[in-house]
Automatic annotation (TrEMBL):
Residues 1-26 form the signal peptide. It comes from Caldimonas caldifontis. The keyword ATP-binding does not apply. The keyword Amino-acid biosynthesis does not apply. GO terms for cellular component: periplasmic space. This is ABC transporter substrate-binding protein. Gene3D superfamilies: Periplasmic binding protein-like II. Keywords: Signal. It holds the Pfam family SBP_bac_8.
Amino acid sequence: MRTLLKPLVRLAAGLGAAAAVTAASAVELSFYYPVAVGGPVTKIIDGMAAAFEKDHPGIKIKPVYSGSYQDTITKVLTATKAGEAPHVSVILSTDMYTLIDEDAIVPFDEMVKTDADRAWIGSFYPGFMKNSQTGGKTWGIPFQRSTIVMYWNKDLFREAGLDPQRPPQTWAELVEMGRKLTKRDAAGNVTTWGVQVPSSGFPYWLFQAFTTQNGVELMNPEGTQTRFDHPAVIEALQYWADLSRKHQVHPPGVVEWGTTPRDFFERKAAIIWTTTGNLTNIRNNAKFDFGVAMLPQGKQRGTPTGGGNFYVAKRTTPAEREAAMKFVRWMTTPERAAEWAIATGYVAVSPAAWETPAMKTYVAEFPAPLVARDQLRYAVAELSTHENQRVTKALNDGLQAALTGAKTPEQALRDAQREADRILRAYR
């Protein structure tokens, strides 16, 4: 018996030692993820991380839920300066130049090893890559990306005598229908606004929809020059301000980003503009028949893209970079991209994701996600420059000054352009 036990003991000891070596050699990646992006998604991220670990036993993923997008980049840059940067992060695509300037990220081109890797980088929608590539390099990989879409309450359209299947197609129709949809009580107080476009949180992003529809882009592709005081930009802001002050179909002053979906649920707004990332939230909570459509056109249709990209920290070991590349590739496979889009409402980031059986089944039952995908043909890159936080703050301040009536649209945008010129002069 003793002679039999000795080999078993040695085998157990050997297995234990092997397990200890495997555990010691496992690569652990910290993964910063912004939670304030349109609904509770931490359970989904936790589930995806666990599934990845099951497929890749030698890699551990440690999700860190880092607050809003603004909180996340602040924490990432602070951690980078302290030498403790998270290995992988989801940060706004528009923060690409800032992350490059801070020497915080490594281009994916330096992690590419195979033709399959190169094909993967080329597999995403070109519209999403406009905020992911610069200088001939790919710095970010699209993950939770979006466009702005229009949601409308079909019941309120019926009550106003409007065709519930036909949302406004033009700026003029938005005003005309907005008048019919705006309701007031006996005292003259508005109970339902015809149109609501949020102007807190990401005012520059919503504004960029108006400017794109008016035929002008807010910045150059190099991120060194803005066009805030262009006549077509001023005209676009005048239209937005007039929805409230002149046409009285839109709430006055600053409209909160976070409460806009709730206002829609509570019938306080008949039409809203917000991210397609709110689609699942609205589908789950709207107790009425609603529609989803492309934004109405001014001179043309248009929307900026939006949302977050994957980035990999520069201060990483070769093993960590290899593991990070595997993680980002796994998270953006067509099957995972489809799963993520179905769960959240964000746009599936590659054409192949729309060809998966899961996505085909989903849109056959609920075709609304196709709106954001099809609108990509009219999409432009989201406002992104060097010193992006400071430049967008200058524009956001100007927008809110104009919408509250503190400044005229022209003065507000001239002031914003003057500040942007001062900030960007060093980069030209």
